[in-house]
Design brief:
mainly alpha, binds zinc ion
Length: about 270
C-alpha cells in the first residue's frame, strides 16, 4: 500500500506540474522577465538533486519511523482514540498547523533562514519556484517532520495524503495565475491562494514576512501574521525575491552556497524591529 501511495504522489506531482504550467502560460498573472525554459531547467535540476538526496537519506527511515511509532502506540491522535475519517481529517489539519509554525521558524531563526532564503532568492514566482529549495532545508524539515510524527502519531495514509496535498498546493500557490477578485476574497478565507502566497515573497519584508500558511490560510489570521490583501490590479507588478538577490536568480552555485553567503541575513528580524 505504501508503494501505491508513493506512486500516487508522483502522479499527482507530475499532473499538477503540467496543469499549472499550462495554466500560467495561458493566463499569467504577472509578466515574467526571464526565459521560462531556463527557469524550468535550473529548477528542474535542483529538484532532481533534492529528490535523489531526500529519497536516499530520508524516505525509508521516515516510513520505518511511521510504522515504529504506530507499533508503539505513540502520539496524541492515538491517545485520543481517533480513527477512520476523523483521524484522517484532523491529522491533515494538525500537520498543516505544524507546517505553519515550522515555516515561521524558518524565517525567524537565522540558522534556518540561511537555508530557506535559497527559496526566497527567486525574483520571479511561478510553478517551478515550488521546486526551488536548498537540500539542507529539506533535510532539516525531515527532522522536524519526524518530530511531528511522534508528537501527533498520524496514520501512514493520512501522512502520505498530507504530503501529496502539500506538493499540490505548493505548485498551485507558487504558479503565476490568479483568481478574479470576488472569488479570491472567498477562497483565501479558507485556502492559500497564489495571491495570498505571492505577498509572502515580496522584497519588502515589512509586508513579505507574513502569510506563512501552506494549505489552510486560517493559521495566519489566527496567529496575527496575515498581510493586508492586495487587489488583482496591485499584484500585476510586484517586486518579488530578496533585495540583494535581484541578479542571480538562476545560478546553481549561488543556490548551493546561499547558507554560507552573508547577503540577506537577518531579514527575518526586520519586521519585528519596524
Ligand atoms: Zn518562506
Amino acid at each position: 500500500m505504501d508503494l501505491d501511495l508513493d506512486t500516487g504522489r508522483l502522479i499527482v506531482f507530475l499532473t499538477g506540474f503540467g496543469f499549472f504550467l499550462a495554466l500560467e502560460s495561458l493566463l499569467p498573472a504577472r509578466q515574467m522577465t526571464s526565459a521560462k525554459h531556463r527557469r524550468l531547467l535550473t529548477h528542474g535540476f535542483m529538484a532532481t538533486v533534492n529528490t535523489l538526496l531526500v529519497r536516499t537519506l530520508t524516505f525509508v527511515p521516515m516510513l520505518a519511523w511511521l510504522v515504529y511509532v504506530e507499533q508503539q502506540g505513540w502520539g496524541l491522535a492515538r491517545w485520543l482514540g481517533l480513527s477512520g475519517w476523523l483521524e484522517f481529517i484532523i491529522s491533515i489539519i494538525v500537520l498543516d498547523a505544524f507546517d505553519y509554525f515550522w515555516h515561521r521558524a524558518n524565517h525567524r531563526i537565522t540558522f534556518l533562514w540561511r537555508f530557506h532564503k535559497a527559496h526566497h532568492a527567486d525574483t520571479q514566482i511561478d510553478v517551478s519556484t515550488a521546486l526551488r529549495f536548498h537540500p539542507g532545508e529539506l533535510l532539516l524539515s525531515s527532522l522536524a517532520k519526524a518530530t511531528w510524527v511522534v508528537i501527533w502519531g498520524p496514520s501512514t495514509i493520512a501522512w502520505f495524503l498530507f504530503e501529496i496535498l502539500v506538493s499540490w498546493f505548493a505548485q498551485a500557490h507558487h504558479a503565476n495565475w490568479d483568481l478574479p477578485d470576488r472569488l479570491e476574497r472567498v477562497v483565501r478565507r479558507v485556502w492559500v491562494t497564489p495571491r495570498f502566497h505571492a505577498i509572502h515573497h515580496l522584497v519588502d519584508r515589512r509586508f513579505g514576512d507574513a502569510n506563512f500558511s501552506t494549505l489552510l490560510s486560517v493559521w495566519d489570521p489566527c496567529f496575527g501574521t496575515e498581510a493586508e490583501a492586495l487587489s488583482r490590479a496591485q499584484t500585476k507588478d510586484l517586486d518579488l525575491g530578496l533585495p540583494e538577490a535581484r541578479e542571480h536568480t538562476a545560478s546553481l552555485k549561488q543556490w548551493l552556497t546561499e547558507p554560507i553567503a552573508r547577503r540577506n541575513l537577518g531579514l527575518s528580524q526586520q519586521r519585528q524591529a519596524d
